[in-house]
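Hi Q.,

Before the meeting this afternoon, I wanted you to have the NAP prediction in hand. No need to reply - just skim if you have a minute. The sequence and ligand are here:
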Amino acid sequence: MPLILFSAKSERWSIYESPLRAALQEVGLGDATLVTEAAPEDVDYIVYAPNSGLDDFTPYTRLKAVLNLWAGVEDVVGNETLTVPLARMVDAGLEEGMVEWVTGHVLRHHLGMDTHILGQDGIWRAEAPPLARDRAVTVLGMGELGASCAKALAALRFRVSGWSRSPKEVDGVTCHSGTEGLDAALSGAEIVVLLLPDTPATRNVMNARTLALPAKGAVIINPGRGPLIDDDALLAALDAGQIGHATLDVFRQEPLPPEHPFWAHPGVTVTPHIASETRPISASRVIAENIRRGEAGEPFLHLVDRKAGY
Ligand code: NAP
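Predicted structure with the ligand bound:
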């Protein structure tokens, strides 16, 4: 039976231990050893959070795979001591939470909720919002999370476009791909949602040039990763009115430092990296299934393409 090392911040163990044991039992690995400390040469699998403090995989000589607890792998993908397969987290619970967060924040801006919630100023603004069918929303990143959000928005009848590296076909979504597809995806968008991974190819994808492509006053919603946006270019676009609002969940430095201009800017909403998170019960099933596959000699699910960086 395999030895599985759980390597994450200590408070995560109390949240994950019982769902992981239950999920291992479900796949016939109830006798597996699941621990938070072990001699590295005895470890078969590492269930891994990149902020766990473990960053030298060299002593793990019998390691078969590293199973990331997070969807984002930018902090581990370039680790040269990691030579075994790396799987990222694809979790139905994480996805559900992201769809809810993105839909909520898109609807906030689409319906102009702030005017009525924050502006209780005695002015009777009797202007109904447009229908979703008349609102162009673009989702950059059409992977597990982006495609689900795009589908949910399309189901609400938004005019949705998507952008990914490889071509896609998604019902109700106009799909663009490749470097050459970016401008078409952004042009005229009124709300732009960023669900790309942080890789060398996606860093600063929203810069002075691309921030000028959406409709004037467009809203940027970023639950992807901080480095997708050139912060100074965004602040300039907000000050110029080209971008009407930015709702940001992720930042180059987290927690966002108190002195960062985003906190005080009237056109920015800061949320503290809470758009969604891995949910222990559903995520444990994904991890247990991957360990079962490893033990059965079957291909792992959700493998990271180390060259592409995600
Ligand atoms: P995913 O399934 O790997 O999807 C990534 C998408 O981005 C894919 O559609 C991919 O294109 C596209 N992409 C990557 N590089 C590109 C490029 N150079 N040009 C155009 N498109 C590119 O990832 P996911 O599970 O949806 O997660 C997306 C990101 O969300 C994660 O990496 C993480 O950073 C973030 N996240 C944030 C939170 C939060 O709470 N804020 C929680 C979870 C995840 P292909 O489809 O062609 O490969």
